């Protein structure tokens, strides 16, 4: 029998490891999911009401530019709505940025433990991803700049970073940008910006407003609307124009647009969520940090816990699952085999996780 002829993916596509989301419990189980950095307080009641109201308009195409959502974002964040592009989650916008600015023979630079989507979207364009070693699980500006070559077209920077929770302060991000050629696009992924409590942090809007080669990307997924899939980007006019030329014409559905606009304006709910997160993030860090476990200081809505060996980390994960808590293993996705990422969840869950891990640590 002759060999079957069939369509073939572009070179390199089948070499890409697919993104692995956080695990969930088995259907019917009472396991508490702490693996995906979701909101422990649910969604804004105003966003829920807006989403429900959209059910009366399901036969109508959504407005193609997400105008109502962009206007709400501009109002609350002090940004010209014309400088905003909305997407089906921030992943949608990151994919579009890669598609527009990377191609065969190009390079994109990122820190070693940066968001695992960056290598996927870079390699999908035929470009190469250059991973740069970090300094104690934090992006190293000097190392990132040293990795830049004539082929570099994009620098990906998650700030704060996933899965480590570490961040670069405003001065360091500005120093990184100052060291880049003007034809290199700096993508500041501020997915966890709402949760930052550090006084020296900047979401990146100052750089976007002052330069032609910086964009900032944000998401609603960590703020209670993960199911709605809403992301947004702020950039200079020429970047916004390029992205709008290739994005899907109705890439944000109407319920998501309305829920996103309502959530944006519900600043009281956002503040309550951030206050809750700061309290329990700091509490969990203090409870777990010991000689047996090292908790990397986090500015996000999760903490990364390091164990002495990958074997101990795997045993800790198994112990947590048996106790009903599903956290994120980060060996396969991020190469941190001795670590676990734990989302900040409800109060009872945080107390339960601390109790289980402290008992586990004492048994090692």
TrEMBL record:
<dbReference type="InterPro" id="IPR004839">
    <property type="entry name" value="Aminotransferase_I/II_large"/>
</dbReference>
<dbReference type="GO" id="GO:0000105">
    <property type="term" value="P:L-histidine biosynthetic process"/>
</dbReference>
<dbReference type="InterPro" id="IPR015422">
    <property type="entry name" value="PyrdxlP-dep_Trfase_small"/>
</dbReference>
<keyword id="KW-0808">Transferase</keyword>
<keyword id="KW-0028">Amino-acid biosynthesis</keyword>
<keyword id="KW-0368">Histidine biosynthesis</keyword>
<feature type="modified residue" description="N6-(pyridoxal phosphate)lysine">
    <location>
        <position position="222"/>
    </location>
</feature>
<keyword id="KW-0663">Pyridoxal phosphate</keyword>
<dbReference type="Pfam" id="PF00155">
    <property type="entry name" value="Aminotran_1_2"/>
</dbReference>
<protein>
    <recommendedName>
        <fullName>Histidinol-phosphate aminotransferase</fullName>
        <ecNumber>2.6.1.9</ecNumber>
    </recommendedName>
</protein>
<dbReference type="GO" id="GO:0004400">
    <property type="term" value="F:histidinol-phosphate transaminase activity"/>
</dbReference>
<feature type="domain" description="Aminotransferase class I/classII large">
    <location>
        <begin position="31"/>
        <end position="355"/>
    </location>
</feature>
<keyword id="KW-0032">Aminotransferase</keyword>
<comment type="similarity">
    <text>Belongs to the class-II pyridoxal-phosphate-dependent aminotransferase family. Histidinol-phosphate aminotransferase subfamily.</text>
</comment>
<dbReference type="InterPro" id="IPR005861">
    <property type="entry name" value="HisP_aminotrans"/>
</dbReference>
<dbReference type="InterPro" id="IPR050106">
    <property type="entry name" value="HistidinolP_aminotransfase"/>
</dbReference>
<comment type="pathway">
    <text>Amino-acid biosynthesis; L-histidine biosynthesis; L-histidine from 5-phospho-alpha-D-ribose 1-diphosphate: step 7/9.</text>
</comment>
<dbReference type="GO" id="GO:0030170">
    <property type="term" value="F:pyridoxal phosphate binding"/>
</dbReference>
<dbReference type="InterPro" id="IPR015421">
    <property type="entry name" value="PyrdxlP-dep_Trfase_major"/>
</dbReference>
<comment type="subunit">
    <text>Homodimer.</text>
</comment>
<dbReference type="InterPro" id="IPR015424">
    <property type="entry name" value="PyrdxlP-dep_Trfase"/>
</dbReference>
<feature type="region of interest" description="Disordered">
    <location>
        <begin position="1"/>
        <end position="33"/>
    </location>
</feature>
């Amino acid at each position: 029998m002759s060999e079957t002829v069939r369509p073939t993916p572009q070179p390199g596509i089948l070499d890409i490891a697919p993104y692995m989301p956080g695990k969930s419990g088995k259907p019917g189980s009472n396991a508490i999911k702490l693996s995906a950095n979701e909101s422990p307080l649910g969604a804004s009641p105003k966003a829920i009401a807006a989403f429900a109201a959209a059910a009366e308009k399901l036969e109508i195409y959504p407005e193609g530019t997400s105008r109502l959502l962009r206007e709400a974002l501009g109002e609350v964040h002090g940004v010209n709505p014309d400088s905003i592009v909305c997407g089906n989650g921030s992943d949608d916008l990151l994919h579009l940025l890669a598609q527009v600015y990377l191609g065969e023979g190009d390079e994109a630079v990122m820190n070693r433990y940066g968001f695992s989507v960056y290598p996927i979207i870079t390699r999908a364009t035929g470009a190469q991803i250059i991973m740069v070693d970090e300094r104690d699980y934090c992006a190293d500006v000097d190392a990132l700049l040293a990795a830049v070559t004539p082929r570099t077209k994009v620098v990906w920077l998650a700030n704060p970073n996933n899965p480590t929770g570490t961040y670069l302060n405003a001065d360091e991000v500005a120093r990184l940008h100052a060291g880049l050629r003007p034809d290199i696009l700096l993508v500041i992924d501020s997915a966890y910006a709402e949760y930052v409590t550090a006084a020296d942090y900047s979401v990146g809007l100052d750089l976007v407003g002052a330069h032609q080669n910086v964009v900032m990307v944000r998401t609603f997924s960590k703020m209670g609307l993960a199911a709605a899939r809403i992301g947004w980007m702020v950039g200079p006019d020429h970047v916004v124009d390029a992205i709008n030329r290739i994005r899907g014409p109705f890439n944000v559905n109407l319920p998501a647009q309305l829920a996103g606009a309502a959530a944006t304006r519900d600043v009281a709910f956002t503040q309550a969520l951030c206050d809750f997160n700061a309290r329990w993030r700091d509490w969990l860090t203090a409870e777990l940090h010991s000689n047996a476990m090292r908790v990397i200081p986090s500015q996000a809505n999760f903490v990364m816990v390091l164990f002495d060996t990958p074997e101990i980390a795997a045993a800790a994960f198994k112990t947590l699952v048996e106790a009903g808590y599903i956290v994120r293993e980060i060996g396969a996705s991020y190469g941190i085999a001795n670590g676990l990422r734990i989302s900040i969840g409800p109060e009872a869950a945080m107390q339960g996780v601390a109790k289980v891990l402290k008992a586990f640590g004492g048994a090692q």
